Amino acid sequence: MHGICHLEIPAHDLNRIQKFYHDIFGWDTHAFDESYALFKAPTGPGGGFSTYQKPVDNPGFNFYIEVEDIDATLAKVKTSGGSVEKEKTQISAEFGFMAFIKDSEGNMIGLWSAK
Questions:
Q1: Is 89 helix (H, G, I), strand (E, B) or coil?
Q2: In this structure, how many other beta carbons lie within 10 angstroms of the beta carbon of residue 66?
Q3: Could you tell me the CATH number of the domain that includes residue 59?
Q4: Model pTM?
Q5: Domain annotation covers residue 54
Q6: pLDDT digits over 54-112, tens only?
Q7: Contact, 64 vs 21, CB < 8 A?
Q8: Beta strands across the sheet bearing 83-92
Q9: Which of 57, 82, 98, 100 is the least crowded, having the fewest Cβ atoms under 10 Å away?
């Protein structure tokens, strides 16, 4: 109880955002209608893409997606309609690496990897 159970990511274009997250992270998606689609990530909570809210490029909080290889993920982002906002940066030897991207809709998203 009391854990995060669902995330919503704002979108302008449901088809475009579903393709972006599928192509970059392999997420499965399912559109309900023209304004909402569910996503299922391989681990962690699932959620939805919604056109009810505007995408956020300077959020009050961030969520991070764990990836195996940040460099490879950043290369995919650059060719899939997103942008790299902060290149791969070491947090520390103990805590790994992070980067920031904007998705196809302009949402700021963090990436994290142990290596």
A1: strand
A2: 15
A3: 3.10.180.10
A4: 0.92
A5: yes
A6: 998 787 788 999 999 999 999 999 999 999 999 999 999 999 999 999 999 999 999 99
A7: no
A8: 64-66, 108-113, 96-102, 83-92
A9: 57
Residue 90, Ramachandran bin (φ over 0: left; ψ between -120 and 50: alpha; else beta): beta
Could you identify the residue written with the tokens 């142990």? 114
Q: Which two tokens stand for residue 17?
A: 């955002």
**Phi, psi of 74, deg, nearest 5:** -60, -35
H-only helix segments in 47-113: 70-79
Distance, CA of 62 to chain centre: 10
- Based on the structure, what is the number of domains in the chain? 1
* d(C-alpha 42, C-alpha 3), whole Å: 17
Q: Do the beta carbons of residue 15 and residue 105 sit within 8 Å? A: no
Phi then psi for residue 110, to 5 deg, are -90, 150
